[in-house]
Write a structure and sequence with these properties.
The complex is a heterodimer of chains A (about 100) and B (about 675).
Chain A lengths: L26 E3 L8 E7 L3 H9 L7 E7 L6 E5 L2 E5 L1 H4 L2 E6 L4
Antiparallel strand pairs in A: 1-6, 2-3, 2-6, 3-4, 4-5
Chain B lengths: L2 E8 L5 H9 L3 E5 L6 E9 L2 E7 L11 H13 L3 E7 L3 H12 L5 E6 L1 H6 L2 E3 L1 H8 L3 E3 L8 H12 L14 H17 L7 H10 L2 H8 L4 H19 L3 H20 E3 L7 H9 L5 H41 L4 H18 L2 H17 L1 H14 L8 H6 L4 H6 L7 H10 L9 H11 L4 H26 L10 E2 L8 H35 L14 H13 L6 H9 L6 H9 L7 H10 L4 H13 L4 H11 L3 H29 L1
Parallel strand pairs in B: 1-4, 1-5, 5-6, 6-8
Antiparallel strand pairs in B: 2-3, 3-4, 7-9
Helix pairs in contact in B: 3-11, 5-11, 7-8, 7-10, 13-14, 13-15, 14-22, 15-22, 19-21, 20-26, 20-27, 21-27, 22-28, 23-24, 24-25, 27-29, 28-29
The chains are: A mainly beta (about 100), B alpha/beta (about 675).
């Protein structure tokens, strides 16, 4: 068992007015999202300073995050959350669990 | 006149520096925080009977002790107890900026918030109700626009009122939820009972213990009776973990953001503007998947074009001025030691460096432009993949590139890097970037021994420098104290139009440091080196270079360098190259008796000396890799704040140069004959 987390059922897209997406059907990691796609953060994996720093930068469960673009060499990736833009490398984004929202909105 | 100490705190990109400049003007002092490489800036402000000492704390996103900057900022507030904390907050990015605010509020000092960049926020449809925010946080909030100097008077007035206790600034206590609050009050009581670390705010200490703050824990451990407390902390932590299935520190972050989003909901009105901002549209082009790279290379090319082509004119004027001064000195002073010291030592050494000041100014201007507009973050974004493969941050790219011009401003440019470990690494490998002063050596030797293949040889040398830098970076990356695994989190702030004032301050800041710190030591170093080449005297006249102390040193070194195929003259030239790499060529000119020191005759002299192409190649490799010049060493010393690092540079580069030159020489003998 690699890691343990508890599903936070209440925190999905549904609770947010702006997004409607089915619960937990689309659980994936942040690095799997393509340009323009959106997700709701479910959990940040990893531990210690790494996890703490991401949480402090606003990568909290329930936060909406959008992929702005991939860098010309594919890595890192620019995201938008909490009204600001930030870039993460793939290896870091892979530790952020997200619930992908359908593209329709 | 009473002095009011103000600690200026804020996120990176919050406009903190701009506000600092607007408040203090030119009355600034730049130094390092004691014992560390982080830059410390202090400024003064005098207004009707009040003297402010404003200390610019490092820009940080948080106050957890994972980075040096954050520890510095926190300890300054806790230990120096400034009269007021001035927290600069970007109104257009309020939520994340308030995270630091909430942490600052816990430090138990009076605080004032400068709600900065309200103009940017408004243009994006974000309206912040300052009064409401002030009520929610319990501290005065002053709207400001640092770039235009708006709101400064209000800010100063309120700072005075708060410092004198005429205006209340009592940060509210955050409510962390029932379980955590119970834990906190229990710990506060226990701290009271055991009388531990009485100088620190109780509630803050309790919070840090729950967070498992390394720094606080290690401090508590040194106190008497700590074990009772710590075992209780462990119990409480594991209980919280059981209840919430989450670590206490994460719960605390969530609670803080919960409080913040409540405050933002109440104090911020957003009129829906969902169209793309200008900055986002600009980024669509500048960091475009296909266009991003070519544009970036174009911008870099422009930077160097400006630096070297436009800089060449003022450089020529300075050279003329220098020549004029030299001639008039020769005319004014009688021949003798004084004239020699002034002309050859001072003018030759300091003048030789000063001449490149226009180039360096252009480089600084370019870097400041990148920084102030926000393009620097994009450059890091574009280049990170490449840099990451060397164990470096994307931001290391520009200082390394600048190294091809001159290592001194390049090392100073590492100040744009926040992570001290990566910064140190970038500084250590910077001298391996072949600076322009090494170029004349390549021209001479490649032109003499590899005619028709100069391009390949010179290109190969530059490539070797880069490869060595990569190897050394990986090597040192392993040895250097590894900080805890911090994520790569690169904020991409919106593009901003730089202000002239801001640019001026930026360039002036760097130039001032360059001149003051480099100037003095370079003067001493060049006079010393001159003395080594001008003594011992023979009959009151300067000796021939081979007979001087430097020449003798070269001869002493000859056996060490002989396995590389170098003769004593090359050894002497290498020693003189310590002043500046281009000096190697002029020394060789003197030593090979090439008359007027022109490259042409020196080439013939070199060819006639019977030097093998393999040795010539080894020599170029050696010049590429061996010791940094005096100026670079001083830059390393000043920027790292320690003599250890220039010494490390000398040591590893000498070893590297010797080994590589040896390999090149031996393999060259096999292949080139």
């Amino acid at each position: 068992m690699g890691f343990r987390w508890r599903w936070r059922w209440g925190r999905g897209c549904r609770r947010r007015e702006e997004g409607i997406c089915p619960r937990m059907e689309n659980l994936t990691t942040l690095d799997e999202l393509r340009t323009g796609e959106e997700g709701i953060i479910v959990k940040v994996l990893g531990n210690g300073a790494f996890r703490q720093r991401l949480l402090e930068m606003g990568f909290l469960p329930g936060t909406r995050i959008r992929v702005i673009r991939y860098a010309p060499l594919e890595d890192p990736v620019e995201y938008e959350l909490k009204g600001y833009h930030v870039a993460l490398r793939h290896e870091e984004a892979a530790k952020v669990l997200v619930e992908k929202c359908p593209k329709s909105s | 006149m009473s002095e009011i100490v103000v600690a200026l705190a804020g996120n990176p990109n919050s406009g903190k520096t701009t506000l600092f400049n607007a408040l203090t003007g030119a009355r600034q002092k730049v130094g390092n925080w004691p014992g560390v490489t982080v830059e410390k800036k202090e400024g003064e402000l005098r207004t009707n009977g009040h003297l402010f000492r404003i200390v610019d704390l490092p820009g940080t996103y948080s106050l957890t002790p994972y980075s040096l900057e954050e520890v510095i900022a926190r300890n300054f507030i806790l230990e120096e107890k400034p009269h007021v904390i001035l927290n600069v907050v970007d109104a257009s990015n309020l939520e994340r900026n308030l995270y630091l605010t909430v942490q600052l509020m816990e430090l138990g000092r009076p605080m004032v918030i400068a709600l900065n960049m309200i103009d940017v926020a408004k243009s994006r449809g974000i309206y912040v109700d300052a009064e409401n925010l002030s009520r929610l946080l319990g501290v005065p909030v002053v709207p400001t626009v640092g770039t235009k100097g708006l709101g400064m008077e209000d800010l100063i007035g309120i700072l005075i009122e708060v410092a004198e206790g005429r205006r209340e600034s009592r940060p509210v206590h955050l409510y962390y939820g029932r379980e955590i609050e119970e834990a906190l009050s229990e710990l506060v009581e226990l701290l009271e009972e055991l009388h531990l670390l009485p100088a620190y705010p109780r509630r803050w200490l309790a919070l840090k213990l729950l967070e498992g703050d390394r720094e606080v824990l290690s401090r508590v451990q040194k106190e008497e009776g700590a074990e009772i407390l710590l075992s209780r902390v462990r119990e409480i932590s594991s209980r919280l973990r059981q209840i919430f299935d989450e670590s206490p520190e994460a719960l605390i972050v969530e609670a803080r953001y919960g409080f913040i989003s409540g405050a933002v909901r109440e104090a911020v009105r957003i009129s829906a503007i969902s169209r793309k901002t200008f900055s986002e549209r600009l980024d669509d082009i500048l960091t475009h998947r296909l266009l991003g790279f070519p544009i970036f290379i174009g911008v870099m090319y422009l930077l160097f074009y400006l630096t070297f082509k436009l800089g060449a004119y003022p450089v020529a004027w300075l050279e003329d001025l220098l020549k004029l001064t030299e001639e008039s000195l020769r005319g004014l002073l009688p021949p003798g030691l004084l004239r020699e010291v002034l002309v050859e030592g001072v003018l030759g050494g300091v003048g030789g460096v000063l001449v490149y000041l226009p180039n360096i100014l252009f480089l600084f201007l370019g870097i400041s432009l990148f920084e102030d507009t926000g393009y620097l973050a994009r450059a890091a974004f574009i280049m990170d993949r490449v840099m990451h493969s060397l164990g470096l941050h994307g931001k290391a790219f520009i200082p390394l590139l600048m190294g091809f011009g001159c290592n001194v401003p390049a090392i100073m440019a590492t100040r744009t890097m926040e992570n001290p470990r990566e910064r140190l690494l970038t500084i250590l490998i910077n001298p391996l970037m072949s600076c322009s002063a090494r170029f004349p050596v390549y021209i001479l030797f490649a032109g003499t021994f590899f005619r028709g293949h100069e391009t390949q040889v010179v290109f190969g040398l530059y490539a070797l420098g880069i490869i060595m830098a990569a190897v050394v970076a990986r090597f040192f990356g392993r040895i250097l104290v590894k900080e805890e695994d911090l994520p790569f989190v690169l904020e991409l702030p919106p593009y901003r139009l730089p202000t002239l004032r801001g640019l001026f301050f930026h360039v002036w800041d760097r130039t001032r440091i360059y001149l003051r710190k480099m100037g003095g030591v370079i003067l001493v170093a060049s006079v010393l080196l001159w003395a080594f080449s001008a003594f011992p005297r023979t009959g009151g006249r300067p000796p021939e270079l081979s007979q001087s102390y430097i020449g003798k040193a070269g001869r002493v070194l000859e056996p060490v360098l002989a396995p590389l195929g170098f003769d004593w003259r090359m050894s002497v030239a290498l020693v003189t190259g310590f002043v500046a790499k281009e000096v190697v060529v002029s020394s060789l000119g003197v030593l090979y008796k090439a008359g007027e020191q022109t490259t042409q005759t020196l080439e013939q002299a070199l060819q006639a000396s019977g030097l093998s192409p393999a040795a010539a190649l080894a020599f170029m490799v050696f010049v590429l890799l061996y010791v940094p010049c005096v100026g670079t060493l001083i830059a390393i010393w000043k920027e790292t704040g320690s003599l250890k690092y220039p010494l490390i540079n000398v040591a590893y580069q000498l070893i590297l140069a010797w080994v590589m030159a040896f390999l090149v020489y031996r393999l060259g003998l096999l292949w080139l004959g």
